[in-house]
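Objective 1b: paired records.
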Amino acid sequence: MKLGFKLIAEAYGPLEIVEQAVRAEAAGFDFVEVSDHFHPWVSEHEHSGFAFSMLAAIAARTTQLELATGVTCPFIRYHPAVVAQMAATTAILSGGRFTLGVGAGERLNEHVVGAGWPAVATRHEMLREALEIIRLLWAGGYQSYSGKHLQLEDARVFDLPDVLPQIAVAAGGPSAARIAGELGDALFVTEPKGELITAYEKAGGSGPKYAEVPLAWAPSADDAAESARRLFRFGLTGWKVQAELPNPVNFDAATTLVTADHLREQFACGPDVDRHVEVARQFAEAGYDHLALINAGPDMDGFFGFFTDELGPALRSAVPASSSSR
């Protein structure tokens, strides 16, 4: 079992994100993962730094911490050839500590280049083609590709790491989980659904299984729940909504009636270590072995201290170990 920390790039500026990663390593986390967005989700979010610049800075400031995107859409805002190059360079700069997390994206981030927003079935076809292109370029040499949606013409990634990054594919349903099993090295989810692991493994997947665990630490459970409402109420809309709305103002409108009590149903809120372990255990018992903890609370310094002194040791002793690891 590996424990990671979610870097919330929509809620904190790029310099603070890098500092949080440094603190996460010092606090005893095994890895960090950072969202790769162009826009933030809601109006309370006031940031959205470029993920790969932040990862490069984190790589230079840390020594053991593993890094990941959580996640990159590799086929609209970016061409997969550019993603192949970015990921290869990040792997080199981090000394092989980087995992490329990919997914089918959200309109929130991809519509900005004016290329339209395809239906989900089309996006899954595009994701497959993007992964094929990335793998092709990582094989070395000049490569071309002609797909239904994506093209590559006589391209080469010149700087490749000695060990290629693993690719973790995000899945909210069985179709994406099958893509993860067929074309990825790992699975990435946000819900403790064992059926996604089943679909992933039936499609040939055998690698790490990443999951984001929703927590909010504060000395007061009420303060923690209110902070979670401010920062993560968009998460209660579900992926069918999250993938389709174009801007923060739309998510503000969609979440007008979400209360702090609604967030308590999904997030472990407050200082009770047993409640945090209870929420994390759901993911571990479902079979996930790389748990990225979200802190939606208002005090990051307090959370890191809580993790070092209480939560980290409690999780490592309470959640079942897994044979899967990098």
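Objective 1b, second protein:
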Amino acid sequence: MNIPNLITIIRILLVPLLAIFLLEEKYNLALLVFIIAGISDGLDGFLARLLKQKTRLGAILDPIADKALLITTFIILAVLGVIPQWLTVLVVSRDLLIIIGFGILVLTGRRFQIAPTYSSKLTTVFQLVTVIYFLGLEYLLWLLFLQDYLIIATALVTLVSSAHYLILFFRFMGADDGDKNALIQSNNNQT
């Protein structure tokens, strides 16, 4: 077990603590845990590159940690009425769509590499900003006018990313073996 993967596992272990703070409506503490998790996300990636310790396990664990944090936060905030439920449905549906797509690729014996696209990275940024905004709203009251715009922007980038992954999935499923390798390389160049 290398240091970057250990940091990622610690980030996964922060999810229950985050959930407890959210359910108890201790948004200051939830925000602190969320920020610590965000810093650890940047730190594990930086260390993996610096120490040349990128691993397949890390490539799998990192998005799982990110999704666990985001999905947990969105679901609890929606249940508590802090953010719109329809936005949470979009966020969770996109991630389920990606997981189902990967599952189909695995079940059909397709070779692929896990690599986020630009639209995926942009979606993650908007979702993170949305969570931070709502968790820190008591400190950001002067930005209250941005709330609806942020919700709409997050929804739009989530929909665009969903559509992009669907397009890539159907292209990949319809490609022959030579085209699949080219598709994997072109998508890796997007990260």
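The chain has two domains: 1-82, 84-191. Residues 180-191 have pLDDT under 50 and may be disordered.
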